[in-house]
Amino acid sequence: MVAGSSGDDPQVSDVIAAEYETLTPECRADPGRLGGFLAPDFHEFGASGAEFGVEGTAERVAAYTDPEGEAIRVERMRGFRLADGLVMVKYTSENNGRRAHRTSLWRRVAPGRWQMFHHQGTPTVDSRTRPD
C-alpha cells in the first residue's frame, strides 16, 4: 500500500527533510551528526557498486566531504509512505559531475525520529554516451 508522495503526509514530509539534511556538507562532514540518521542495521549499495554497512559509513563520508563545499544537487525528490512508520524516498543526485538515481528507506524509531536503514545509488546513463 503506497500512500503517495503528497507533502500533506507528515511522515513523508519529515523523512524528506531528514534526507535533505543528510545531503548537506555540514551534516556529511560531521560523523556524529550523520551517524544519528543511520540505523544500526543500515545497509548501502553505493553508486560505485560497493556495499557498505553502518560500521564506518559516517566516518568514510566525512573523510571526503568539505564542510564548506557545495551541497549535493538534488532533482525530483519524492517520498512514499509504504506503511505507518515506513517511508521510501527517491531522487536523482549530482555530486562532482556524477549523477545517480537514489532510493532510501526510512523507519520511525520514536515519535518524530527517523533513521535510514537502506540506501541505494545507481549511476545514471549519460544520454550523450548511451547507444541508440
Verbal overview:
InterPro entries: DUF4440, NTF2-like_dom_sf. Pfam families: DUF4440. The protein has about 130 residues and is α+β, with helices and mostly antiparallel strands. It has one domain: Nuclear Transport Factor 2, Chain: A. The chain has helices spanning about 10-20, 25-30, 30-35, 55-65; strands at about 40-45, 50-55, 75-85, 85-95, 100-110, 115-125. Strands 2-1-6-5-4-3 form a six-stranded mixed sheet, with helices on one face. The longest helix is centred in the N-terminal third of the chain and has 13 residues, at about 10-20. It is globular, with a radius of gyration of 15 Å.
Helix content: 10-25%
* Structural category: alpha+beta
Provide the CATH architecture. Answer: Roll
CATH topology description? Nuclear Transport Factor 2, Chain: A
Our Rg estimate from Cα atoms comes to 15 Å
Uncertain segments are none
Strand line-up in the sheet with most strands = 2-1-6-5-4-3
Multimeric organization: single chain
Shape: globular
What kind of sheet is the major sheet? 6 strands, mixed
Number of folding domains? 1
Termini separation (Å)? 37 Å
User: What is the CATH class?
Assistant: Alpha Beta
> How many individual β-strands?
6
Order of helices and strands: HHHEEHEEEE
Compute the number of helices: 4
Strand portion, in percent? Answer: 35-45%
Mean of residue pLDDT?
90
Pfam families: DUF4440
Domain DUF4440: 16-116
Protein name: DUF4440 domain-containing protein
InterPro entries: DUF4440 (IPR027843), NTF2-like_dom_sf (IPR032710)
